[in-house]
Amino acid sequence: MFYQLYELNHAAMAPFRAAADIMRFAYANPLNPFSHTPLGRTMAASLEMFERTTRRYGKPEFGLTQTTIGDQTVFVREEVVWSRPFCNLLHFARSVPAARGNDPRILIVAPMSGHYATLLRGTVEALLPSADIYITDWIDARMVPMTEGRFDFDDYVDYVIEMLHFLGQDTHVIAVCQPSVPVLAAAAVMEEANDPLAPSSMTLMGGPIDTRINPTAVNKLAQERSLQWFSDNVIMNVPWPQPGFMRPVYPGFLQLSGFMSMNLDRHLVAHKEFFMHLVKNDGEPEKHRDFYDEYLAVMDLTAEFYLQTVEQVFMKHSLPKGELMHRGKRVDPAAIRKVALLTVEGENDDISGVGQTKAAQTICVNIPEDMRMHYLQPDVGHYGVFNGSRFRREIAPRIINFVREHSRSAVKPPVPRVIKGGRTA
């Protein structure tokens, strides 16, 4: 009943949250003389803190309406081009001049691990000037009726394969964090079947390919607990009146509590500084609002997908051991021969330890040496592998270079300059 109690508490707090929001506007209104005093600003800051810590954060928007190609600003239109019960495929269609030719087509597989695909807004934004971008927009499991059936690890792999079939030949795929395992599995399944629509390249970023290497706190937790413990303690049924009523899920609010507890001191300091900025009225709080509006927006995962991922990836290490199964057949990474492989890691990653993603280079034994590369980015954690200034300056150009180098198209545009930094192997 824990999920039901959480929903009841949220509903019970609604009138207090609404009252706090109204009072905050009154205290912060510049026409109110009290708003120009330290006490008035303190009241307004306290009310905003209450409202923000008790609200449910909805799914954010990408909000990418334009990009710059060369010295020209072009419009971007976001559209759903493929849809299934648990995922929409978004296309960021750019109004590029016909004379430019075709940029590489890239499918970004966003993690299905609690946050929405908008967490990769910075990833998309950095790649848009140089590529035709598609991204998986996973749907909150609490919003999917039970009549739509289950969604497990096999379904995830099938979705990736279906999207690659939809996009056609010479598509490149980027997996960020969790989807590194199912994306590699999808490539192996397609290569073993001699599928002509297998991706031209795959880029795996901060992914748990082999969590036996440099295990992090997340990896150790999975080793210390049994699968039954996870099933008993974190799996709950979606409460009424949500569309997914009675669907077994790993709730987003539980995932968020886990995320927050890993760096609780950092979050407490950030909120304290946010409060002080509000009191001082120095214009700094907007960065805090933007970050936490994204970070605190979470989604439920289907129980079957979550438990299978915990068991196969973090407990049994099935992929690096050669024991991962898809639809009753063993997934063979050695079958990958024509898909170029780029692995990217962050030196300070506390989610996927250094070496866990690089392990893909070891298990994909039949990819030619001139079709593989590994890059370790210094001074970044997990988030910095796919977002932030170092990603834009050092990682994104390397991805574009790699993609263009291994494109199967006849014409390859000139590659952008890469700022020196990090280590490439």
From TrEMBL:
Name the UniProt record assigns to this protein: Polyhydroxyalkanoate depolymerase
What's the source species' lineage?
A: Bacteria, Pseudomonadati, Pseudomonadota, Alphaproteobacteria, Hyphomicrobiales
Kindly give the PANTHER family that the UniProt entry links to this protein: BLR0908 PROTEIN (PTHR36837:SF4), POLY(3-HYDROXYALKANOATE) POLYMERASE SUBUNIT PHAC (PTHR36837)
What organism is recorded for this protein? Rhizobium chutanense
> Which residue spans adopt a coiled-coil conformation according to this UniProt entry?
none
Q: Which Pfam families does this entry report, sorted A to Z?
A: PHB_depo_C (PF06850)
Q: Where is the PHB de-polymerase C-terminal domain?
A: 206-406
Top-level lineage group: Bacteria
